[in-house]
TrEMBL record:
Task performed by this protein: One of the primary rRNA binding proteins, it binds directly to 16S rRNA central domain where it helps coordinate assembly of the platform of the 30S subunit.
Swiss-Prot/TrEMBL keywords: Ribonucleoprotein, Ribosomal protein, RNA-binding, rRNA-binding
Name of the protein in its database record: Small ribosomal subunit protein uS8
InterPro entries in the cross-refs: Ribosomal_uS8, Ribosomal_uS8_CS, Ribosomal_uS8_sf
Family classification: Belongs to the universal ribosomal protein uS8 family.
Pfam family for this entry, one: Ribosomal_S8
GO cellular component: a single term: cytoplasm
Length: 131
């Protein structure tokens, strides 16, 4: 697999469109940190890391609107790709949907949202947008 982050986003996006309650994804440290951000920002209900096999899996409980049955997020968009990495500093940190969405950024101080990166005064690789 050449891009595990794109695979992570695609699995979550496809499960949400199909209306699944839970999605299972092969685990890695980066994917676990991205899942924590999705839960903290309210785009997913909860997650659990199962240590089965050498790699393990992440089970993410997806969140839906009670009335419309639409997913809590409207879009998951991969920004930095293996063929073209996208880096940013604090001054040029992107704002997703004028502050309504969130950008997940991999910094030297760990994986965090764009708002946390601005507060910590660090830049890094923009992994994806969630809105």
């Amino acid at each position: 697999m050449t891009d595990p982050i794109a695979d992570f986003l695609t699995r979550v996006r496809n499960a949400a469109k199909a209306g699944h309650k839970v999605v299972e994804i092969p685990a890695s440290k980066l994917k676990i940190e991205m899942t924590k951000i999705l839960v903290d920002q309210g785009y997913a209900l909860s997650y659990k890391v199962a240590e089965d096999g050498p790699q393990g899996t992440i089970k993410i409980a997806l969140k839906y609107d009670a009335l419309t049955k639409q997913p809590a997020f409207r879009g998951l968009h991969r920004v930095s790709k293996p063929g073209l990495r996208q880096y940013t500093n604090v001054e040029t940190m992107p704002r997703v949907k004028n502050g309504l969405g969130v950008a997940i950024v991999s910094t030297s101080k760990g994986v965090m949202t764009d708002k946390q990166a601005r507060a910590n005064n660090v830049g890094g690789e923009v992994l994806c947008y969630v809105y």
